[in-house]
Amino acid sequence: MHTCRNITRLVAGTLLSAVLFISPALAQTPSPKLSDPEIASVAVTANKIDVGYGQIALKQSKSADIRKFAKTMIEDHTNIINQAVALAGKLGVTPKDNALTDKLLEGSKKTTSVLKSKHGKAFDKAYIDNEVAYHEAVISAVTNILVPQTQNAQLKALLIKVSPILKEHLDHAKMIQASYQK
C-alpha cells in the first residue's frame, strides 16, 4: 500500500509540474498525440522542473508556509522521479522527448527567471501563484490528455490514481495563496 501511494505521488508530482506550461500550449493548439514513452518523458521532466522551483523557494523565501510547501514539493517530486524511473524500467519504457517536453523546459526557463528576479513577499506570491496554476493545468492534462492517450494499463491506472493527490496539492497551494490576497 505504501509503495502504491509513493508511485501515485510520483506520477502526481510529475504531472503537477507539467500543468503550468501545458495549459497555455494546450489552449492554443489541439491536444498533442503522445505515446507512452512521450508521456513518461513529460512526467519526469515536469517533476524535475517542480523540484527546481522548490529549490528556488528554499533559497529565496523566508516564509514558513512557503518553505514548508517547497520542501514537500521537493520531497514528493524527487520520490516521484525515482519511482517513475523504476516503473518505466519495469514496463520497458524509455522516456522519449517530444514537443510537450520541449514546451515544459522552455516555460521553465522563463518562470525560473521571473522567480529568481523577485524577493520577499513578491517572490512568495509569484511562487505560490505559479504552483496553483501549475496544479490546475496538470489536473486538466491528466484528465484530458494523458489518461485518454496512455496505452499501458498499469500506467493508465496510476495516472487515474494521482488525481486525488493532485487535488490535495492544489487545495494546499490555494490555501497558502489566499493569505497573499489580503
Give an overview in words.
By secondary structure, the chain is mainly alpha-helical. About 85% of the residues lie in helices and about 0% in strands. It has six helices and no strands. α2 (about 35-60) runs antiparallel to α3 (about 65-90), α2 (about 35-60) packs antiparallel against α5 (about 120-150) and α5 (about 120-150) runs antiparallel to α6. The longest helix has 30 residues, at about 120-150. About 40% of the residues are buried. The model is unreliable at about 1-30 (pLDDT under 50).
Percent strand equals under 5%
Fraction of residues in helices? over 70%
Order of helices and strands: HHHHHH
Rounded to the nearest angstrom, the distance between the terminal CA atoms is 40 Å
- What general form does the structure show? elongated
Radius of gyration: 15 Å
Structural class computed from helices and strand pairing: mainly alpha
* Uncertain regions spanning at least 5 consecutive residues: 1-29
The residue-averaged pLDDT reads 81
Number of strands: 0
Q: Major beta sheet, specifics?
A: none
How many helix segments? 6
